[in-house]
């Protein structure tokens, strides 16, 4: 779908900051396209701030998918049946695939895969807070599918209409797969809730631990969202953090009732006047501590990722050697 071999600007090229500001006509054309809800494509002129915002968001999203393989991946060898193992294996592979589509989408903006990965491995780039919490028991895997993927779908369906073409197109496929992820999580929990009292207690315990971090996953309140308003003006984000969080709460409450679990919030209740649920206060100090690198699993997640990258060096070397050999053969044949 995308080229994965974009040229990276060479070091001798003038720095972007030195390029004269865009002629008004280009800015006007860009603004008209955004206003008309048309897609911006890689070859189109775009303001540098729009490009930077997209690289930041898309690469953070890609990193989240890749790091997000770890909490569930740890359960592949311990899944309780062959069926659950096959489903989980497919899901975790899907997350890896999502990361790859998204790195490709970010590369169309002129930032190389190496630069993106280097930013992750040196903690310059973020990934979603939610993947810094541990998966303590099997029910956590079902709850990740139900709640974390449920939150991801809520956040990502509007991104299918993002103004940047490659990101929007990647999101269409990702959302289809996320729907399967959410359904398998819910179905696994349904089965566990029909099991023994101990199994039901495990599901409730997992819900108690994941509920609040999942609500925080939508990002800070709109009043504290640094990029929110501008992202909405550019058509990158379509719905604000708080509005998505509210939609998620309203969609999840009836699902919890079907499942037979209690959402751990004494203030959660239907508000007739607003025609939506009210919910209790989110612990934003905990969220920022996790985002700042001090969550329960941040160090472990990053160390695993860096190790996997280093262990894979021989694969990259072999692929490059093979590509060089192929090219030399083609040149020889053409001569
Ligand atoms: N975690 O101005 P704001 C998945 C940061 S993968 C960490 O509102 P924005 C899955 C934010 O980056 C799901 N940091 O930002 C995979 C900013 O800091 P910087 C990942 C967060 O961009 C495997 C600052 O807080 N989804 O579903 O307008 C298995 C201020 O925030 C978080 C995506 O990445 C957070 N939760 O809005 C299962 C979706 N929230 O960058 C499932 C795409 C905020 O200035 N991304 N921050 O240093 C988005 O939609 C938006 O980027 C966000 C944040 C809604 C996340």
Would you give an account of this structure?
This protein is an all-alpha fold and 335 residues long. The protein has helices at residues 24-35, 48-67, 69-73, 82-107, 113-121, 138-156, 165-193, 197-216, 228-233, 241-259, 284-294, 298-311, 313-334; strands at residues 269-271, 276-278. It is built from 13 helices and 2 strands, in the order ααααααααααββααα. A hairpin with a 4-residue loop joins strand 1 (269-271) and strand 2 (276-278). The two termini are 31 Å apart. Mean pLDDT is 93; it is low at 1-20. Bound molecules: benzoyl coenzyme A. The site of benzoyl coenzyme A (BYC) has 26 residues, from helix 2, helix 6 and helix 9.
Number of helices: 13
Percentage of β-strand residues:
under 5%
Q: Give the strand order, joined by hyphens, for the main sheet.
A: 1-2
**Topology as a string of helices (H) and strands (E):** HHHHHHHHHHEEHHH
Radius of gyration based on Cα positions? 22 Å
What is the straight-line distance between the termini? 31 Å
Give the % helix: 55-70%
Name the shape in a single word: globular
> Would you count the extended β strands for me?
2
Distinct small-molecule ligands in the complex: benzoyl coenzyme A
- Main sheet attributes: strand count, strand direction, barrel closure: 2 strands, antiparallel
Poorly predicted runs: 1-20
């Amino acid at each position: 779908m995308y080229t994965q071999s974009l040229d990276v600007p060479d070091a001798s090229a003038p720095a972007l900051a030195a390029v004269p500001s865009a002629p008004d006509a280009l800015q006007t054309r860009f603004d008209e396209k955004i206003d008309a809800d048309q897609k911006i494509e890689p070859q189109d002129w775009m303001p540098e701030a729009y490009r930077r915002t997209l690289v930041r968001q898309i690469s953070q999203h890609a990193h989240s998918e890749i790091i997000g393989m770890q909490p569930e991946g740890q359960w592949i060898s311990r899944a309780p049946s062959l069926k659950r193992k096959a489903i989980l294996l497919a899901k975790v592979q899907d997350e890896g695939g999502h990361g790859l589509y998204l790195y490709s989408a970010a590369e169309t903006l002129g930032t190389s895969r190496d630069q993106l990965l280097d930013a992750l491995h040196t903690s310059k780039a973020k990934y979603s807070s939610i993947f810094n919490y541990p998966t303590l028991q099997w029910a956590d895997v079902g709850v990740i599918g139900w709640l974390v993927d449920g939150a991801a779908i809520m956040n990502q369906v509007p991104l299918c209409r993002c103004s940047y073409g490659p990101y929007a197109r990647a999101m269409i496929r990702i959302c289809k797969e996320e729907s399967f992820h959410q359904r398998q999580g819910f179905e696994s929990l349904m089965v566990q809730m029909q099991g023994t009292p101990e199994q039901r207690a495990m599901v409730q315990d997992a819900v108690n631990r994941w509920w609040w971090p999942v609500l925080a996953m939508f990002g800070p309140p709109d009043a504290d969202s640094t990029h929110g308003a501008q992202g909405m003006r550019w058509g990158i984000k379509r719905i604000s953090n708080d509005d998505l969080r509210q939609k998620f709460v309203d969609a999840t409450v009836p699902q919890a009732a079907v499942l037979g679990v209690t959402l751990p919030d004494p203030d959660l209740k239907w508000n007739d006047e607003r025609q939506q649920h009210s919910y209790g206060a989110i612990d934003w100090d905990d969220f920022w501590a996790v985002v700042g690198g001090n969550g329960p699993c941040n160090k472990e997640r990053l160390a695993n990722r860096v190790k996997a990258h280093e262990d894979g060096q021989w694969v990259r070397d072999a692929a490059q050697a093979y590509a060089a050999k192929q090219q030399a053969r083609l040149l020889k044949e053409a001569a």
